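Late entry, evening session. Most of the bench is empty. Finally got around to the prediction I had been postponing all week. Sequence below, unchanged from the version circulated by S.P.
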Amino acid sequence: MLRFLSAAAFGLAAFLLFAPMSGADVCLTPEKVRASLVQNIPGVDVRELKAASAQTFMLAFNAVPPRSDVRAGAIVLARHAAAPQAVAIFFWKGCMVSRAVLPVAVLDALLASIEKEA
């Protein structure tokens, strides 16, 4: 059943898992998001980028058409082996501010930009 759900629903599930919550005082931290992903999506691979790695990733991410201007001090990346999409969840000042579903191939290319800088 996971194979059936994961291809189309992985991105949707991860996306909806962190849908805007009511109340302005809600702050979803990277730690809460990582824990929730691991708890709710069996087999998910989660990675967090911080500091210089997050900045390098964001420069590359924002340059991908359509160009954007997303700011993030930390990023949680989630992917599942059976899904063609990955989810990038962006944090500013310790709280989630945005998220994006992107093809795994695009994520791999963005991660390669970090490795080139290292």
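Two things to note before I forget:
The longest strand covers residues 95-103.
Confidence is low (pLDDT under 50) at residues 1-8.
Will write this up properly tomorrow.
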